[in-house]
Amino acid sequence: MIPDALARRLGALSDLGVTATMPPAEAKHVRFANQAALAAAFVSLLFALVEIRLVVLIDASTSHKMKLVAIRFAMSFPFFLPLMLDARGKTEPGRRMLIGWSIVFCLFLSRYFGAGAPAHLFFLPIMGACFAVFPRSRRREMWIGVTLAALGLGVAIWMRWNVVPWMPITRPDKLVNVDVLVTAGALLLTAVVGWSMRSNMQRAEDRIVEEQARAEALLLNILPESIAQRLKASPGSIADGFDEVTVMFADLVGFTPLSASLPPDRLVELMDRIFKEFDELAERHGLEKIKTIGDAYMVAGGIPEPMPGHTAAMAEMALGLLPIIDSIPSPTDAKLDIRVGIARGAAVAGVIGHKKFIYDLWGDAVNTASRLESHGIPGRIQVNEEVFLALRDDYEFTARGEIEIKGKGPMKTWFLVGRRG
C-alpha cells in the first residue's frame, strides 16, 4: 500500500496542468502523460543506479566509465520536463516532449547496450502510450508518435547487431543479468502504461457518472420524476389530459414598489426565501410546482399522476402560505401580503420547448385560478364553486357572491377560511 502522504503527492503531480474548466476527457490524457513521465523518470533513474555495477564489467578507462555513468544519469532527467511544462499550463508541448524524448532515450539505450540488452523492447510501451497521451482531437499527432516509435524500433534492432555499443559487456555470464534488467524495465513500464490507462479511464468514468447524477438532479428540479423518465425513454412531445385537477396561483401584493426600493441582491434573497418555503410546503402536501412568473407562484394537484384528495391538499397549502408571508419581515415600511386563487377543473399538462423546456399546464382550471387570484383580495384565498363543493364538509368558507371575472363573465366565488373544528 502507498502511504497517504505519498499518494497525495503523486496525485498532485498527476494533476499538473489539469484545470477546473478542463473537460474530463482532456484531463484524462493530461493525467496519463504526467503519470507516464513520472514512471519513465523513476524507472530510468532506478536502473541507472543498478547499471553502475555493470560499468565495471567493460574494458575501458576509469574516466570513460565515469563519463558513461554521467551520461546515463543525465539522460533520465528530461523526463521531468513534461511535468514542468504541464505545471505552466503547456500541456500540448508537454505531451509531445514526453513521446519525443522517450523515443530518443530508447535509441540511446540501444546505442548504449548494443546486443548486450533488448533495449528495443521499450518502444512497445511508447506505442501504447501514444494512444493514451493524445486525445481524439490530436489523432494526427498520435499516429505521428506511433510511426516514429515504430521506426525507432526498427533502428534500435538494426543498431543492436550492427553498431559497437558504448558499454560492451565482455563477460557473457553477465549478459543474462542485463537482459533480465532491461526486460524487467520494459515490462514494468508496460504495466504502468496499462495501469495508468485503466485508472484514468475509471476516473473519467466516475466523473461521467457524477455529471450524469448532477444532470439527473437538475432535470428533476425542472420536471416531475415520472415525466423526466418518460422524456428520457422516448424523447419528443409529452401531453396528458386530466378531467380533474386543482390549480393555485399566489401573487405577492405590493412587490413591484418594493422591488424598486431594494438593491438586486436583497430583492433576489427575499424572493428566494419566500419561494423556497412555498416549495417545501408544496412538496409536503404532494403537490407539483409548475413555475414562478415574476412574483407569482403556480402550483397544481392531481398531476402528473392522479392523486386522491388533491383539492384538500391544495387548501392546506393555501392556508399555510398566509403565516409564511406574515412571518417574513418586510425590508421596508411596506407590508408584504399575498393574494391567492384556487380553481378545480379540467386541464392539459405537457412538456414544451426543445431548449429550456418546462412542464406546463393549460386549460379552464388554469385560466380560472389565474382570474380568481387577480380579482381577489389581499390576505384572502378565493376559490371557484367546484372547490367549494368538494371541500364544504371539511372546511369553512365565506361566500363572496357573484363577481365579474374577466373572460369568464359572472361567477360565484367563496373565500376559504380554514378547516372545520
Largest β-sheet summary? 8 strands, mixed
**Tally the helices: what do you get?**
14
State the order of secondary-structure elements, H for helix, E for strand: HHHHHHHHHEHHEEHEEHEHEE
Rg from C-alpha positions? 37 Å
The first-to-last residue Cα distance is 68 Å
Q: Mean of the pLDDT scores?
A: 82
Structural shape: rod-shaped
Explain the overall architecture.
The chain is α+β, with helices and mostly antiparallel strands. The chain has helices at 4-14, 24-55, 62-74, 81-87, 91-113, 123-133, 139-162, 175-222, 225-233, 255-260, 264-284, 310-327, 364-374, 385-391, and strands spanning 238-253, 288-293, 296-301, 337-352, 358-362, 381-383, 395-405, 409-419. It contains 14 helices and 8 strands. Helix 5 (91-113) packs parallel to helix 7 (139-162), helix 6 runs parallel beside helix 8 (175-222) and helix 11 packs antiparallel against helix 12 (310-327). 33% of the residues are buried. The model has no long low-confidence stretch (mean pLDDT 82).
What's the structural blueprint in terms of helices and strands?
Layout: H1 4-14, H2 24-55, H3 62-74, H4 81-87, H5 91-113, H6 123-133, H7 139-162, H8 175-222, H9 225-233, E1 238-253, H10 255-260, H11 264-284, E2 288-293, E3 296-301, H12 310-327, E4 337-352, E5 358-362, H13 364-374, E6 381-383, H14 385-391, E7 395-405, E8 409-419
Parallel strand pairs: 4-6
Antiparallel strand pairs: 1-3, 1-4, 2-3, 4-5, 6-8, 7-8
Helix pairs in contact: 2-3, 2-5, 2-8, 4-5, 5-6, 5-7, 6-7, 6-8, 11-12
